[in-house]
Design brief:
Layout (H helix, E strand, L loop, with lengths): L2 H19 L6 H6 L9 H12 L2 H14 L1 H8 L4 H14 L6 H9 L1 H28 L7 H21 L1 H26 L7 H5 L10 H10 L8 H5 L6 H31 L6 H9 L1 H34 L7 H16 L6 H7 L9 H6 L7 H20 L14 H31 L1
Helix pairs in contact: 1-9, 1-16, 3-10, 3-14, 3-16, 4-5, 4-14, 5-12, 5-14, 6-14, 7-8, 8-9, 8-16, 8-17, 9-10, 9-16, 9-17, 10-14, 10-16, 12-21, 14-15, 15-16, 16-17, 20-21
GO molecular function, one term: symporter activity
GO biological process, one term: sodium ion transport
InterPro entries: Na/Glc_symporter_sf, Na/solute_symporter, Sodium:Solute_Symporter
């Protein structure tokens, strides 16, 4: 059989297995909060779910490509984003134990009102749509050239099969299948590393010593990651939803473990890109290395992309259902049937744009830069801030994000040289500005109160 035929067999087989093991549930707590007969998920289940949801197809492709560009520095830089688990875990723990908040939307509604909810929902809505098309496009790229019939057919079938098993049990299905997908990921990554490391003179030492620890060679991006982790995790409902479904202590433990495991996996997967660069293979690194070793590794790489993409997309479906029916509509007597219809709708709206102009999708993505204004909102979640602090910070962050996308950064603002220098500068100055506009109304308010 041809390689393409094997790829189709794997695609269908993986999803059939996931459909078979997926539990069926109509219980509200199971469907929206991942419980089993109203018992919250364990730390082990929650940790695996957190990790695999962020080891999505686009993410591991980026890790390999950054390893290709900057060596181990690129892998470490991208792994820096996984400190998002640490930041979110600690803040959500305190929000739950000190503030008694039941969700991110509960916090925003209580402190900043309905308008804050609407603005926040717009930001995370783009994020959820992007999760679908960015991952399915990666899957499609393994089946054919972008825009070809095999490309469109594979990503469509993949999305429909993922939707099918997610509809069975919502969040409960997502968490159970995440455990299986995480096991798949680790096994397949071990196989890949077991192939490329022995093929490299010097072994692991060669990979670890690759790259140059300079600003222009990846350190710029590492600093960007360290800045963005203050805001980035809070515009990802897949990550934050899982912060409210188990006990606070179990949740904090899971987020801390997810930080270590997730960052380690990203660094190790960057070895694929480092190997590709050393062998002079063409980018993208994952496909280049897979083709270099032949059919078997291509199928392994294809499978790892399928499992990681499915884990993220099924979580996207469940987070969208929760966003609409619990966070926004706050329905009484929540209908699981309606939630399933919402999942179908997001699958359609997240896939259709790919058929028209894939290039435009990158321009419509709400990037980590555009949500920098969320940093002071959550870092200082317990401050008595007026509504103007929220809107000023969030909207200013969006302005800085659009500035980065559409206008060049003046040379005098650049803090370093090389790739990502503009990204670093805009994130540093923008984040500082967002903290200032958030805190000024608070100080002004206190001054008035002390005067009176």
């Amino acid at each position: 059989m041809s390689t393409l035929t094997w790829q189709w067999i794997i695609l269908i087989a993986v999803n059939v297995v996931l459909f078979w093991v997926s539990p069926w549930s109509n219980k509200v707590n199971d469907f929206f909060r991942g419980s089993h007969n109203d018992t919250p998920p364990s730390a082990f289940l929650l940790t695996s779910s957190l990790v695999i949801c962020w080891l999505f197809a686009k993410s591991i492709t980026n890790a390999a490509d950054l390893g290709y560009q900057f060596g181990i520095v690129g892998g470490v830089a991208y792994a820096g984003y996984y400190l998002s688990f640490l930041v979110a875990g600690v803040i959500i723990y305190r929000m739950r134990t000190k503030g008694q908040y039941k969700s991110i939307h509960h916090f925003l509604q209580t402190k900043y009102g309905k308008g804050a909810i609407i603005l926040f929902t717009i930001l995370i809505g783009f994020r959820l749509l992007n999760e679908i098309w960015s991952n399915t496009m990666i899957v499609g790229s393994y089946f054919g050239e972008k825009g070809s019939m095999p490309y469109f057919a594979s990503l469509t079938v993949f999305t429909l099969l993922t939707l099918a098993y997610t509809l069975k049990g919502g969040m409960r299905t997502s968490i159970i299948t995440d455990l299986i997908q995480m096991a798949f990921f680790v096994l397949l990554m071990v196989i890949i590393l077991g192939i490329i490391i022995p093929e490299t003179d010097g072994g692991i030492k060669t990979f670890v010593q690759s790259g140059d620890w300079s600003m222009a060679q990846g350190v710029n991006l590492l600093l960007v990651a360290l800045i963005q982790v203050l805001s980035y995790p809070f515009h990802d409902p897949i990550l934050t939803d899982r912060g409210f479904i188990a006990s606070p202590k179990t949740t904090l433990k899971s987020y801390l473990w997810a930080t270590v495991i997730g960052a380690s996996c990203i660094i190790l997967f960057s070895f694929v890109g480092i190997f590709a660069k050393m062998r002079g293979l063409e980018a993208p690194a994952t496909i280049g290395v897979a083709k270099f070793f032949g059919t078997i590794l291509l199928l392994v790489m294809n499978t790892i992309m399928l499992t990681s993409a499915a884990a993220t997309i099924d979580s996207t479906f469940t987070s969208t259902a929760k966003l609409v029916h619990i966070d926004l509509l706050n329905e009484k007597g929540i209908s699981v049937s309606k939630a399933r219809l919402t999942m179908i709708a997001i699958a359609v709206f997240g896939t259709i744009p790919i058929f028209f102009n894939p290039e435009i999708l990158s321009a419509t993505t709400i990037s980590g830069t555009m949500v920098m204004g969320l940093a002071p909102i959550f870092v200082f979640w317990n401050l008595d801030a007026p509504k103007i602090s929220y809107f000023a910070s969030v909207l200013l962050g969006v302005v800085f994000g659009f500035w980065l996308v559409f206008y060049p950064i003046p040379t005098f603002m650049l803090l370093s040289e090389g790739k990502y220098a503009d990204l670093l500068s805009i994130n540093l100055f923008g984040t500082i500005a967002c903290f200032i506009v958030f805190l000024l109304p608070i100080l002004f308010k206190k001054k008035i109160e002390s005067t009176n």
